[in-house]
Design goal:
Layout lengths: L1 E9 L17 H13 L6 E2 L8 E11 L8 H11 L4 E8 L12 E9 L11 E2 L6 H11 L22 E9 L2 E8 L6 H13 L5 H10 L14 E7 L2 H7 L2
Parallel strand pairs: 3-9, 5-6
Antiparallel strand pairs: 1-3, 1-4, 2-3, 5-8, 5-9, 7-8
Helix pairs in contact: 3-4
């Protein structure tokens, strides 16, 4: 068996998230399993670098799978072309390449980066990929609030309840807001994320930018470890997984 990594992107609007779930059809993982199994003529099960929720998008996503029959490395372009020809238009594959057999798309990742896109003017072409906010919040105040996130590691207050995680600790590596024409984009990187974490952080920071809560109250919210104290969760459509980072040594092995 040879292990491969696949790099892809998808628009998550029509899907119930990445992960296959009981009694929930139409997930990205399900589609990828089916299409890879079809073109490789063997049963393929992919493992993703993370789990995106219903309606969330990915510009940079990695998964791994094992293949017994086909040496994809012989002609990567051919297999990418075959896969893209059977994938739906809202999922695109970029690369398939050999990795070491112990490489793991999920557990080898050292950081993940998300963008959340807000639109400050109504735009019918962004209804599935941005959150429309009626008034522009105070960006400087929200960026000052971002600095608070680096002071903590326990983000229970931003997590969905009853999740099966062994810890709610995360290390925030980057967090900031940027204005791009009529778009207001929040970027955040961390070693790991909790379920619904980014959307809850964005909703809370928007409340700070709208002067509904203060930065000091943000500290109290985080220290409370209580989800009900934090702000609302913004809609899934504005959230994009934009970058997965792996150790340099692992990346080198990917190219061998």
């Amino acid at each position: 068996m040879q292990r491969y990594f696949i790099q892809l992107a998808y628009n998550g609007t029509a899907y119930h998230g990445w992960q296959i779930q009981e009694n929930t059809p139409n997930t990205i993982q399900q589609v990828l399993n089916e299409k890879l199994s079809l073109i490789l003529n063997e049963l393929i099960t992919v493992t993703g670098c993370g789990r995106t929720d219903t309606g969330v998008h990915a510009k940079d996503f990695y998964a791994h799978f094992d293949s017994e029959k086909i040496d994809i490395a012989e002609n990567e372009f051919k297999w990418i072309h075959k896969l893209n020809s059977v994938l739906p238009n809202d999922i695109a594959a970029f690369k398939i390449f050999k990795v070491k057999n112990d490489a793991n798309a999920r557990f080898d990742a050292i950081s993940r980066t998300y963008d959340y896109v807000n639109c400050t003017s109504k735009n019918p072409f962004l209804i599935d990929t941005a959150y429309f906010i009626k008034s522009e919040p105070d960006i400087e105040k929200m960026n000052n609030a971002c600095k608070v996130l680096f002071e903590y590691i326990d983000f229970s207050c931003f997590s969905k309840s009853n999740t099966q995680t062994f810890t709610n600790n995360c290390k925030i590596l980057e967090a900031h807001w940027k204005k791009e024409n009529n778009l207001l984009v929040f970027t955040i990187s961390a070693d790991r994320f909790l379920r619904n974490m980014v959307r809850a952080i964005v909703g809370t920071l928007l409340e700070i930018g709208e002067n509904k809560i203060t930065i000091e109250e943000l500290k109290e919210i985080i220290e409370s470890k209580n989800r009900s104290n934090a702000g609302f969760s913004v809609p899934a459509g504005g959230l994009f997984l934009t970058k997965i980072q792996y150790p340099e040594a692992t990346l080198k092995s990917y190219n061998n």
